[in-house]
């Protein structure tokens, strides 16, 4: 890499840690930041620092500013359906479809033992506890992406959850195989939710 003053070098190194950002893109971003006026650059820096205020909801494990997130606190939402997602960001994708009005649970990833993602490293124990302590949950939607790891996770979870006497469903086909929920359009994902099938 070319030689740059330390602050530029450090900013390139920091931005390169973001997904999809290689050294060349990072370099472009840093020069864009240098072209900003001081005030705009401060707004940018403060936005990153303020992420420190984000914590994990103690009920569903999504990102939240409060110990319990707005969705978990919302008494208008149904407590009889629980939608289990891989990552916190999947919740905003599903919320954008405007078709789901139950509660959520973030599993923390998909099962992938080779990469160290096992029920023990994910939120398995917490999910079982949630179901045991909330008998009003009748249906658990396993809203994982239809790829190998997503399907493996659905199979594993549906067996465990059925043992607890709850119905499990998964998203209807319509999501392209291997497609990530994150990139599904709202209409397709909404249809997949409404047309969910029992596992
Ligand atoms: Zn929550």
UniProtKB/TrEMBL annotation:
NCBIfam families to which the protein is assigned, alphabetical: recR
Protein's name in the database: Recombination protein RecR
Function: May play a role in DNA repair. It seems to be involved in an RecBC-independent recombinational process of DNA repair. It may act with RecF and RecO.
Keyword set, alphabetical order: DNA damage, DNA recombination, DNA repair, Metal-binding, Zinc, Zinc-finger
A GO molecular-function descriptor: zinc ion binding
Organism: Candidatus Uhrbacteria bacterium CG_4_9_14_0_2_um_filter_41_50
Zn finger (C4-type) location: 57-72
UniProt family annotation: Belongs to the RecR family.
InterPro entries: DNA_Rcmb_RecR (IPR000093), Rcmb_RecR (IPR023627), Rcmb_RecR_Znf (IPR015967), TOPRIM_dom (IPR006171), TOPRIM_RecR (IPR034137)
SUPFAM superfamilies noted in UniProt: Recombination protein RecR
């Amino acid at each position: 890499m070319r030689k740059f003053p330390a602050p530029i070098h450090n900013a390139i190194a920091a931005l390169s840690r973001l997904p999809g950002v290689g050294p060349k893109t990072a370099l472009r971003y840093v020069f864009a930041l240098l072209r900003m006026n001081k005030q705009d650059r401060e707004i940018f820096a403060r936005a990153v620092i303020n992420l420190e205020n984000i914590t994990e909801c103690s009920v569903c494990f999504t990102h939240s500013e409060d110990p319990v997130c707005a969705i978990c606190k919302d008494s208008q939402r149904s407590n009889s359906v629980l939608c289990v997602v891989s990552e916190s960001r999947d919740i905003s994708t599903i919320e954008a479809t405007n078709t789901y009005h139950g509660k959520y649970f973030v599993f923390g990833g998909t099962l992938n033992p080779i990469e160290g993602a096992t029920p023990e490293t994910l939120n398995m124990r917490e999910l079982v506890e949630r179901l045991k302590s909330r008998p009003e949950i009748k249906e658990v939607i396993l809203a994982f992406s239809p790829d190998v790891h997503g399907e493996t996770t659905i199979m594993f979870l549906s067996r465990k959850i059925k043992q607890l006497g709850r119905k499990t469903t998964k998203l209807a086909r319509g999501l392209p195989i291997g497609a990530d929920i994150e990139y599904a359009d709202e209409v397709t994902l909404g249809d997949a939710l409404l047309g969910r099938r029992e596992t």
